[in-house]
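[recover] target loaded
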């Protein structure tokens, strides 16, 4: 009942509406929640400041130590299964047009950051990363309240590349955070959901049919690209069914994904309808 020829997925993006692309892989993801506890209650920052560890300060120190100045993640064993792409593969990915100044302007940032030795597109597709998705602790209401908080919290995500195992990485991060926690605080860690990344062959009949369909609609041959996001269920479906997913998506970076005012242009919606109809025709 679950036999199929292809797993068609459109929950992905392309480079732009002028330079269409088809993803040939996605990153995996894993997630860890960290709670740091100092005193048994919030305490007066005047009476106790300077002698009692502030969990918020400790939390920030722990998080900042997880990456070095070169953007390299410091968790032991984190890169053990990371595959280094060949020069030819990196050259193929570099075909995708990218304007770093336009990129910075669109995000209103002064500069880009990341792992040394890799381009912006490589950092967000073929390399793993570690980011804080949420952080809080102490008094955050209006005005002042002079307390050292009892607890501080953070939610940390790791985007992974193919061959990295989400459970193995989560356990390595948890083990490392426990190891670097100073004795003046207690830490509690929770492993969140995760999923593995994957690659798909661009020489498959499905990929070729999709490329032909998209090229016909946009008038430009699509560029193979690597997605930076994650769809964890796809790696499991691929393992169970033995079928490669086809990542035929039409989202754009300007869609403001996961942000307020997330949107989807009607032009892309209609282009997607045409492209998928042609894909079924050619496949």
């Amino acid at each position: 009942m679950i036999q199929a020829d292809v797993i068609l997925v459109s929950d992905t993006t392309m480079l732009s509406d002028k330079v269409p692309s088809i993803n040939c892989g996605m990153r995996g993801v894993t997630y860890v929640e960290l709670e740091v506890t100092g005193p048994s209650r919030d305490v007066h920052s005047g009476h106790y400041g300077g002698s009692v560890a502030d969990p918020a300060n400790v939390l920030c120190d722990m998080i900042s130590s997880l990456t070095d100045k070169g953007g390299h993640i410091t968790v032991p064993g984190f890169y053990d299964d990371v595959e280094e792409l060949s020069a030819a593969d990196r050259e193929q990915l570099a075909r995708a047009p990218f304007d770093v100044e336009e990129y910075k302007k669109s995000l209103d940032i002064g500069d880009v950051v990341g792992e040394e030795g890799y381009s912006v597109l490589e950092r967000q597709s073929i390399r793993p990363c570690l980011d804080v998705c949420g952080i809080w602790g102490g008094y955050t209401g209006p005005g002042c309240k002079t307390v050292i908080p009892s607890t501080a919290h953070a939610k940390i995500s790791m985007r992974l590349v193919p061959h990295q195992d989400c459970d193995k990485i989560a356990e390595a991060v948890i083990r490392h955070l426990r190891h670097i926690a100073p004795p003046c605080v207690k830490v509690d860690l929770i492993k969140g959901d995760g999923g593995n990344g994957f690659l798909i062959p661009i020489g498959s009949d499905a990929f070729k049919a999709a490329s032909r369909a998209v090229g016909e609609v946009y008038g430009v041959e699509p560029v193979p690209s690597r997605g930076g996001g994650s769809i964890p269920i796809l790696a499991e479906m691929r393992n169970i069914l033995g079928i490669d997913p086809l990542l035929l998506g039409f989202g754009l970076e300007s869609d403001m994904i996961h942000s307020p005012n997330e949107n989807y242009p009607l032009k892309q919606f209609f282009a997607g309808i045409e492209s998928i109809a042609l894909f079924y025709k050619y496949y």
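[recover] notes: The mean pLDDT is 93.
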